[in-house]
Every structure is written in C-alpha cells, then in structure tokens.
Amino acid sequence: MHGGRVMVRLTGAFTLCKLSKVTLKGIQARLVDKLSEWVRLNPVAAAGEAVN
C-alpha cells in the first residue's frame, strides 16, 4: 500500500472477465473494513495483458 493506494494484479481469467470491476469493489470493501481506512485499488497489468 502506498498513500492509500493498493496495486492489484489480476491474472488468469480475471484479466478478461467483465465482472472484474465488481470483484475489485468487493476486495476494496474488505480492505477498508479490515484496515479501518479508505484505500483505492489500482489494477495493473502483467506484461502483455490488458486492464479493463
């Protein structure tokens, strides 16, 4: 985590999944709950992959 931002790399089927944004929102909500502070998830791509 850097300055309230968490870098997340989606791999496998998640890279092309249309519901990946929903998954990221769920992960973000869990992190906010556990860390008791607001965080922003930034999806990053592995080499040769697209980020939706």
Head-to-tail CA distance between termini: 21 Å
Rounded radius of gyration (Å): 11 Å
Cross-sheet strand order for the largest sheet: 1-2
List the total number of helices: 1
Mean pLDDT across all amino acids: 80
Residue stretches low in confidence (pLDDT < 50, at least 5 long) are none
The overall strand count is: 2
Question: Secondary-structure element order, as H and E?
Answer: EHE
Share of residues in helices: 25-40%
Judged by helices, strands and strand pairing, the structural class is alpha+beta
Q: Per DSSP, what share of the residues sits in E-state strands of 2 or more residues?
A: 15-25%
> Strand count, sense and closure of the main sheet?
2 strands, parallel
**3D shape:** globular
